[in-house]
From TrEMBL:
Originating organism: Lacrimispora celerecrescens
InterPro entries, per database record: ATPase_BadF (IPR002731), ATPase_NBD (IPR043129), Euk-type_GlcNAc_Kinase (IPR052519)
ATPase BadF/BadG/BcrA/BcrD type domain location: 7-279
Entries under Gene3D superfamilies matching the protein: 3.30.420.40
Record-linked SUPFAM superfamilies: Actin-like ATPase domain
PANTHER family xrefs: N-ACETYL-D-GLUCOSAMINE KINASE (PTHR43190:SF3)
Record's protein name: ATPase
Superkingdom as given in the UniProt entry: Bacteria
């Protein structure tokens, strides 16, 4: 069996796998439902990993034991024990221990440069990592969506439901947001909103997708939707600032913005960029040219 390299980007909503041959030729790219180890748990995550990887290897006629390098960048890798749980799932499939690298899906971007850098992700969840000139890595946020994930799609979605609930209660007015949510979801009573939250609180992607409607309403000038964006932008700036203060001082530092919220929501991204320019002048801000998936594959080959 021929050797190959594999990179994985496993977020809370989607999991992606890219495989290349020994010479770097792309053999295939695959997508399946994702997971977050810290909220979905070990068993569900183990099954999601297998459902992403094993059918792909079967289709390409590849064996886990022939892998020359695999980098798993996965959501919810928050501690050495989480890393071991994830690692065990891949070793169980047959991947060699010495060829396997497991990282948090945000941390992988720090491998794009050897210089001091920060990366903040806001997608379904949120987290910020930083690496200083000494090579030390620091983290803020991303522990789980109940006590953390501030400024994420889930956070925006939950704030959206609260605003719509307050509108239905007669406490505030959301002239654009509430009709949009009712039209798109059918959540037109407090009872339905309550049932929806109870049913989806642990399946956070369903609540996170409501952030798309908050963005649409904000573009149309809904003041409550704009407030939600402002609060989430402030929260993401807080993650960046708190991470930077833990790092050793540096003359130059790069900040990478990633995740569906920061990449696709220009309102949030603009707010964060403005805060960084004010609070950390001279910081180079950008969206990575290479995706998390391609970065993971690059790391696997290095």
């Amino acid at each position: 069996m021929k050797g190959y390299y594999a990179g994985l980007d496993i977020g809370g909503t989607n999991g992606r796998l890219k495989i290349c041959g020994s010479a770097g030729e792309i053999l295939g790219e695959f997508t399946a439902p994702g997971c977050s180890l810290n909220t979905d748990g070990a068993e569900k995550s183990r099954l999601r990993y297998r459902d992403l990887v094993l059918p792909a290897l079967l289709e390409l006629n590849l064996e886990p034991g022939c892998c020359q390098g695999i980098c798993v960048a996965a959501s919810g890798i928050d501690s050495p024990s989480d890393e071991q749980v994830c690692r065990s799932s891949f070793e169980e499939m047959g991947f060699p221990h010495e060829k396997l690298l497991v990282l948090n899906d945000c941390e992988v971007f720090l491998h794009m440069t050897e210089d001091p850098a920060l990366v903040v992700i806001s997608g379904t969840g949120s987290v910020c990592f930083g690496r200083d000139g000494n090579g030390s890595i620091y983290r803020t946020g991303g522990w789980n969506h109940i006590i953390s994930d501030e400024g994420s799609g889930f956070d925006m979605g939950l704030k959206t439901l609260k605003a719509v609930g307050d509108d239905l209660s007669g406490r505030i007015k959301c002239p654009v947001l509430t009709p949009l949510i009712i039209k798109e979801t059918g959540l037109d009573t407090l009872e339905k909103i309550d049932d929806f939250i109870n049913a989806n609180l642990m399946e956070k992607s369903e609540i996170a997708r409501l952030s798309l409607f908050a963005y649409q309403a904000a573009v149309l000038g809904d003041h409550e939707a704009i407030r939600i964006h402002w609060e989430c932008g402030e929260a993401l700036w807080g993650l960046i600032w708190d991470t930077k203060t833990k790092m050793a001082a540096a003359d130059k530092i790069s900040l990478w913005l990633w995740g569906s919220v920061l990449v696709k929501n220009d309102i949030i991204r603009g707010m964060v960029e403005e805060k960084v320019r004010e609070g950390l002048p001279g910081t180079k801000i950008g969206i990575p040219e290479m995706s998390a998936l391609d970065t993971a594959l690059k790391v696997a080959r290095s």
